[in-house]
């Protein structure tokens, strides 16, 4: 609720004035229990910063991050002390984009999966090997791989090891930051299906950070769209992708190539550069790129408003614009 995170940049060697980056600017959204919620936007919009703030790696300047802890009820983890943070950390796990960066190359697969169990003293020593075998089975890795090192595994297999390590803690919430974007397209669907199966088996909730909207459409129930540190639209993924309420959402959707048209790798971003987060445009941050901009848009920040049941948008004219999501045909 209302989470803000600012970074102050000093002037550097050229002695420029200090400036502030509002990486998160009054961000509010819900992640309902058992749901998969997508957090999307172009790079630099703040989605990874939000993930790291939830994980406690970054601390918010203001706002609340309420977590429904299975034992303690609703707790605010935005400014958790180290005891609460340690407790909650078991219940919230993160899966990163690059499995190579998150696995120690000198550890065998069995040791990698055992490590979180040992560090957090979750099990007596004798129970660790059978638990490791069980976790590997749950992520579809044969016990034959137990003694292998990460370099002897494929990218998809390495990501399964990362998922097994997260699962070892019996988490309630998994923050997945671009979990499949480093993988071959052929492996992406397998990995997404594994995550979906695990969600059902282990009653997991996902916050799924991604820039690939076709992946988000496949994987999530609800979507939160961010632009330059602000939430600009939230709602049911299917409804939003069919009929977006914010011109930025429409532009993102229209930049996704239509299946079977053109090269599958072709991606068109919304027209124009993403303005710098150091000095974002006044009023609606999107106004320099928005085809519907009016004079009020460059002076007044639009509030995030409820437009219809379960749907919010931060646009002065949300609900009044003739937006269409026509993949392959950029509106701007
Ligand atoms: Fe476009 Fe104005 Fe809406 Fe911003 S507030 S998205 S500039 S119409
Ligand atoms: Mg990122």
Automatic annotation (TrEMBL):
Keywords: ATP-binding, Nucleotide-binding, Transport. InterPro entries: AAA+_ATPase (IPR003593), ABC_transp_ATP-bind (IPR050319), ABC_transporter-like_ATP-bd (IPR003439), ABC_transporter-like_CS (IPR017871), Oligopep_ABC_C (IPR013563), P-loop_NTPase (IPR027417). PROSITE patterns: ABC_TRANSPORTER_1, ABC_TRANSPORTER_2. Its main location: membrane. Gene3D superfamilies: P-loop containing nucleotide triphosphate hydrolases (3.40.50.300). GO terms for molecular function: ATP binding. Residues 1-253 form the ABC transporter domain. It comes from the Bacteria. The keyword Ribosomal protein does not apply. It is a peripheral membrane protein. It is found in: Cell inner membrane. The keyword Transmembrane helix does not apply. Belongs to the ABC transporter superfamily. This is ATP-binding cassette domain-containing protein. It comes from Devosia rhodophyticola.
């Amino acid at each position: 609720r209302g989470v803000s995170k600012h970074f102050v940049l000093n002037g550097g060697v050229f002695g420029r004035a200090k400036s502030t980056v509002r990486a998160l600017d009054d961000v509010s959204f819900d992640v309902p229990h058992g749901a998969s919620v997508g957090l999307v936007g172009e790079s630099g919009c703040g989605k990874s910063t939000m993930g790291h703030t939830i994980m406690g790696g970054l601390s918010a300047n203001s706002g609340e991050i309420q977590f429904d802890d299975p034992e303690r009820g609703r707790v605010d983890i935005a400014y958790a002390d180290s005891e609460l943070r340690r407790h909650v950390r078991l219940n919230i796990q993160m899966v990163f984009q690059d499995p190579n960066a998150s696995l120690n190359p000198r550890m065998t697969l069995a040791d990698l999966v055992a490590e979180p169990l040992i560090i957090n003293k979750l099990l007596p020593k004798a129970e660790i090997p059978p638990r490791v075998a069980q976790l590997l089975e749950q992520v579809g890795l044969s016990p034959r791989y137990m003694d292998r090192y990460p370099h002897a595994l494929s990218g998809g297999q390495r990501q399964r090891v990362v998922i097994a390590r997260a699962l070892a803690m019996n988490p309630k919430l998994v923050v997945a930051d671009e979990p499949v974007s480093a993988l071959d397209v052929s492996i992406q669907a397998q990995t997404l299906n594994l995550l979906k199966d695990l969600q059902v088996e282990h009653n997991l909730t996902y916050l799924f950070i991604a820039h690939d909207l076709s992946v988000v459409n496949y994987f999530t129930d609800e979507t939160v769209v961010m632009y330059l540190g602000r939430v600009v639209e939230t709602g049911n993924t299917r409804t939003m992708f069919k009929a977006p309420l914010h011109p930025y959402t429409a532009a993102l959707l229209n930049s996704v190539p239509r299946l079977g048209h053109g090269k599958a790798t072709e991606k068109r971003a919304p027209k124009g550069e993403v303005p710098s987060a150091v000095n974002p445009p006044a009023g609606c941050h999107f106004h320099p790129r928005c085809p519907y901009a009016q004079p009020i848009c460059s002076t007044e920040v639009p509030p995030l408003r409820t437009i219809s049941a379960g749907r919010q948008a931060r646009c002065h004219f949300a609900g009044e614009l003739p937006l269409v999501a026509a993949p392959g045909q950029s509106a701007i």
